[in-house]
Amino acid sequence: MTLSRRDFVNLTATGSVVFGFGGTAPRFLAHAAKKAKSQENVLVVVQLSGGNDGLNTVIPFDNDDYRKARPSLAINRKEVHKINDELAFHPVLKGFSELYQQGQLAVVQGVGYPNPNRSHFESMDFWHTCVRKSEKRDSGWLGRTVDQLEKDRAIDIAALHLGEEKQPLALLSRTYRVPSVRSLEQFRLNLSRQESLGEIRKLIESRRKQTNPLLEFVQASAGTAIDVSKEFEQKGKSYHPKASYPATALGEKLKTVAQLIQSGLQTRIYYVELAGFDTHSQQAGAHNSLLRQLGDAVFAFQSDISGQGHGDRVLTVCFSEFGRRVEENASKGTDHGTAAPMFLVGDRVKAGLIGKHPSLKDLDEGDLKFHTDFRRVYAAILENWFQCNSKEILGSRFRPLSVLDV
Fold it and tell me: Buried b vs exposed e over 354-367: b needs ≥16 C-beta within 10 Å?
């Protein structure tokens, strides 16, 4: 068999370019098989892109003002999963309701920030960086967390973005390159093509002295990719989910995160996204589908993680850049709003409702008024979960919200 340089690059791509690692080989996979299970805390971030309608997620189901504002979108009070006599989860959020009953879900109400911006990009960038548009945005809040976590010692890969979307600004570090990976399949070479793998090794040796930068890059990572793909194939066989995941994109992403945690990977931060929440028209069907994906996937993930013995060290956080306006629009949808709930899931959250549901009578030009700055939630994660200096990361001192039992 004759293997061209192009074939070589294509066959070894899974060990290099498609990872988005830049000029480094995927050493974290090689280390994962050799390290004992980490006991350090892990954060999983689920970004709900587009602006989730919090009012139809945590529903004031018996509120007359809610029903008047939403003649077609108000949820049937007989179908909801009640939290108490005033609030309930959307009918498709059975997973959240069960997590709540099990003491594994905290609902932080009325989350936002001062002088809200209703632009998707600007609002999301502020959530990602904690820096206003007029200031320099050279890193994200999780990227700065990585800088602190890696300051005293080297973690294999401190953070990992999983998905086909553009890497979130939140993960931009001043010092380290955070990888983006589409799926676990990107980690694997086709091991059935043993002849091809042999040719790759021969070609690596024959081109050692060449100075082509691209070829040098591939050479540096190809050998590792071949060896690691074998190790990871074996490691993957030992993972047996403790829960049934839904056959959805978010379900697959969170299943992958659980597998990587179970494999012994030292990664402290995982980031995934569920998009489609910009429901300006015909909201009901689309929002139902998205919330079902969210609730079912997060419930399966938490059940799996707890079953694998990691429940007390994995925290999942779900957020969106803003909520929706109180009144539905003429297209049976909702427009960009402000305050919305955040959700924290894990064995060590202070389960229950945190803060009051925003008033439907005292509005700000048709929008809910926030009462909890999202940076207080971040501060709790940074100080109580990661033992980081939150002021250094957030740029100012924010009193950590009492949301974690640590």
Answer: bbebbebeebeeeb
Please tell me the total number of residues recorded for the chain in this structure.
406
Please state the domain count of the chain: 1
> What is the pLDDT tens value at each position of the chain, 406 positions in all?
444 444 444 444 433 333 434 334 444 444 444 444 468 999 999 999 999 999 999 999 999 999 999 999 999 999 999 999 999 999 999 999 999 999 999 999 999 999 999 999 999 999 999 998 878 899 999 999 999 998 866 666 889 999 999 999 999 999 988 888 887 766 554 444 445 555 655 655 665 555 555 555 445 445 444 554 455 555 556 789 999 999 999 999 999 999 999 988 889 999 999 999 999 999 999 999 999 999 999 999 999 999 999 999 999 999 999 999 999 999 999 999 999 999 999 999 999 999 999 999 999 999 999 999 999 999 999 999 999 999 999 999 999 999 999 8
CA angle 235, 145, 184 (to 5 degrees): 25
- Could you tell me if residue 253 is inside a domain? yes
- Structural domain includes residue 74: yes
Are 329 and 296 contacting, i.e. CB atoms less than 8 angstroms apart? no
- Of residues 229, 334, 231, 317, the one with CA closest to residue 280: 334
Whether 171 is covered by a domain: the verdict is yes
Contacts of 73 (CB under 8 A, 6+ apart): 56, 283, 284, 328, 332, 333, 334
Residue 288, domain extent:
37-186+246-394
Return the CATH number at 333.
3.40.720.10
Would the CA dihedral through 358, 360, 364, 367 be positive or negative? positive
Q: pTM for this structure?
A: 0.84
Phi and psi at residue 164, in whole multiples of 5°?
A: -90, -10
